[in-house]
Structures are given as C-alpha cells and as structure tokens.
UniProtKB/TrEMBL annotation:
Protein name: HTH tetR-type domain-containing protein
Origin species: Streptomyces violaceusniger
Limits of the HTH tetR-type domain: 11-71
PANTHER family: HTH-TYPE TRANSCRIPTIONAL REGULATOR RUTR, TRANSCRIPTIONAL REGULATORY PROTEIN
Gene3D superfamilies in alphabetical order: Tetracycline Repressor, domain 2
C-alpha cells in the first residue's frame, strides 16, 4: 500500500517549498520570507530545505518563475485591440493578488524563464494589433518591442504606486484621501486609472483608437 502512515511527515519537495513561500509572501509580505520562516511553515528544519534550494535568492527566483507560469495569455476573440487590452488588464488583476511579485519583477534581480511564454503571446498580440493600421509595410518590429516594454513599466508603476509593498509612495495616501475611503477603494481607483491609460498608450505608440 502507498498510504502514508499516520503522523509520518510529508515528503519535502521544491513544489511544496515554493507553495509555502508563496503563502507566506501573500499573507505576511516579502520581508517575512526567509528560509527559516518557510521551514517553520513546513514543520521542518532549515537543513532540510537546503537539500532542495541553495539560499533565499534561489527561493525568490523560483517564486518569480512560479508567478510567470500563470501570467495570462491574450483573451480570445477576433478584435486584436480587445485581446491586447484584456491580456494586460488580466495581468494587472493577477499581479495585484501577489503584490510581492510585482516588486520582484520591478527590481529585476530574479529573472523568470517561464515569463517567455507571456512575452511571446503579448508581442504576437501587439503585432496583430499593429498590422491593423500598418498598411503593406507591416508592423514596425522595434516599435512593437518598445510598446511591450512600455506596457510593463505602466503595469508595474500602477501596481507599486497603488500598494505600499516596499516602494511606499505618497500618491497612495493622496488617493485614499481623495476618494474619502480606505485602501481598497484607492486600489480600485488605481486599477481604473490603468484601464484608462492602457488604450491611450496603445494609441500613441501603435496608432490604435482609444476609447
């Protein structure tokens, strides 16, 4: 029989370590994430974790990779503009649930190989949108790549300004005061701002129609 005997500890794996680290980061913040804290969460010693990861830096890289795997593809549909906007709004919503991930991406120290799938799908969607108004010459590849980078800066800027996750910004407090409500309302305002800015950035860089 393969059943685990009562009281026998579960087998430790990288997947369990990453899941525990993600839980800690989501609920306690990135500063609380240490190898010791993950070991406590898993009910084991630090030495056991070091059989699977080298140090905290590798743990952060694994977390970044885990987040990148779940970045959303473009939305289905015939309208290339709606597909692009939908993908980036979904990315905003996803990362807003894991704000520490936005910080890791912005700091750029922990590259995630799994982000390549999101990059390819986003660039392809932007190319399809650019072809709509590019004429016979086709889309400007350099312009598409630049647009992709600008959208990332726009996304991360809104997330990190809207939520004090290590890059506290006075704009956050101003938004709370302006809306006359708590941080949840301010976060909603920043999300609305991102949704407003996104089509206008696309219009400016690719010549698409904003609304």
């Amino acid at each position: 029989m393969n059943a685990r005997a009562p009281g026998r500890p579960r087998i430790l794996s990288r997947a369990r370590i990453v899941a525990s680290a993600r839980h800690i980061a989501d609920n306690e913040g990135l500063e609380a994430l240490t190898v010791r804290r993950v070991a406590q969460e898993l009910g084991t010693g630090q030495a056991s974790l070091y059989r699977h990861i080298a140090d905290r830096n590798e743990l952060l890289t694994l977390l970044a990779d885990d987040v990148a795997v779940h970045l959303p593809p473009p939305k289905d549909g015939p309208d290339p503009r709606e597909r692009v906007i939908g993908q980036w709004l979904n990315a905003y919503d996803y990362l807003s649930q894991h704000l520490w991930a936005a910080r890791i991406i912005a700091e750029g120290e922990h590259a995630a190989d799994s982000a390549a799938a999101f990059t390819r799908s986003a660039v392809d969607a932007l190319a399809a949108l650019a072809r709509v108004g590019s004429g016979e010459g086709g889309p400007d590849q350099a312009g598409i790549a630049r647009t992709y980078r600008v959208l990332w800066h726009l996304l991360l800027g809104h997330l990190l300004n809207a939520h004090p996750v290590g890059h506290a910004h006075p704009v956050h407090d101003i938004a709370v005061e302006r809306e006359g409500a708590g941080p949840a309302k301010a976060a909603e305002t920043f999300r609305d701002d991102f949704a407003w800015a996104l089509p206008r950035v696309l219009e400016g860089l690719l010549g698409t129609h904003a609304s």
